[in-house]
Structure formats: structure tokens, C-alpha cells
């Protein structure tokens, strides 16, 4: 969903307290790499150094890697079978000089395919904190998300929680709320209750989010007073609290 740009930006901003986090954003959507455009990095290229590939940096503390940086044109089609995709993902994890980072955010395509299996397999020894699953309120989307939750359970990948994106639209003039994607079966919150999964929050539909992504600008900077910005901040805070608690429990076990 369109929330990934603001997610990475918020982590990198270190807006909880004064600490500035070192963040890496890895785009493993091999056939549809949208991260370069959304982060304002279209046209950038990956450089080789003695320590491996160097990520492309949005800020000093926000590095990005995507197959989009390896294409001669953003319109080039990547027509690869599974083994070639898996090989590139392994190379991104093994040969990219990420440096010391606090968070590695992995953007995956929808579904439960090669990319998801590869990430879970290659990072198994790193003890992944968990998956954040994004959905929209309507049942057609929730059907797919239930499959993704089942996938996480089968591969023993913790689920941090579910975010409901495009959750209602508040008219900036009349302030009335419209359900563009009606939650006919109760939406993500009801699904989380039924499946015993954490519900992280709702991000309302805001046209400025799409505009910011198309222009490669930070939505948080462009629309700091938007209800969506408040939702992003609350959701990211919950994710950080989950990760902090998980690391604390691991340290106690060690």
C-alpha cells in the first residue's frame, strides 16, 4: 500500500524522543519496484564498492535498495522465474553494505509467493521481528489477507499486526465521512478479533498521500496536520513498542 513511504520516513526521523534511527528499506517487489519513485530516487543507480553494493540514500540515515535501480528505464519489464528472483533477493541481503542499522524494513509484493518464502528463509537466523500486514476494508481484500496471515502462521513468522489502509474519506469541506471501500464484513478490526491478531490502526484515505508518492515527497512533511499523519505516527509507535518488547524478552532469555 501507499503507507510504506511514510513508514520508512517515520522510522528514519526517530520521532520518538531524540534518537535518530539508522533505517534500511529493501524493496523485494522484483516485478513491480515502486520504491524508487515513491522515495524520490528515480534515475539513481547502485554503486559498487570494496564492501559490496552501496544503498541509495534518501537521508544519511535512510538507505534504499531496489531492483528499480538496476533497470535502464522505469518502464522496463522484469520477466523472471522464481530462481532468478530468489538469487537477487539473496544478493540484496548478502552483498549490500547496509552498515549498522536499527531497522530493516522489507517491502514485499502482495500474496504469498517466491519473494515471501525467500525472505523468511534467508533471514531465519536473524529472528525477524515480524510482519506488518496491510489491507483495505472490503471483503475482497480481506480474503487475500486471511491467506497471508495463514502463511505467516505456517512459516512461523510472527505477526506484528494489521493496518487498515484507505479506511474512509473525510471531505475537507463538509467534514462528512464516506466509506469508499465499505467494510461489508466488519473490516480489518473485526477480522483481527476473529483471528486473534493485533489490529494496529486505520489510515484514512487522503489524496495527498498518492500525490506525495508520485512526486517522491514525504507525505508527513507535506501534510503534517492530516488525520492520516496522526494515524501513521500512532501505528509506527505501536510497531516500535512491539519490537522493543520483543528484543527485551530475547535479551532476558539470553
TrEMBL record:
PROSITE patterns: MRP. Component of the cytosolic iron-sulfur (Fe/S) protein assembly (CIA) machinery. Required for maturation of extramitochondrial Fe-S proteins. The NUBP1-NUBP2 heterotetramer forms a Fe-S scaffold complex, mediating the de novo assembly of an Fe-S cluster and its transfer to target apoproteins. Implicated in the regulation of centrosome duplication. Negatively regulates cilium formation and structure. HAMAP family: Mrp_NBP35. It is found in: Cytoplasm; Nucleus. It comes from Pygoscelis adeliae. Its main location: cytoplasm. The lineage of its organism: Eukaryota, Metazoa, Chordata, Craniata, Vertebrata. This is Cytosolic Fe-S cluster assembly factor NUBP1. Pfam families: ParA.
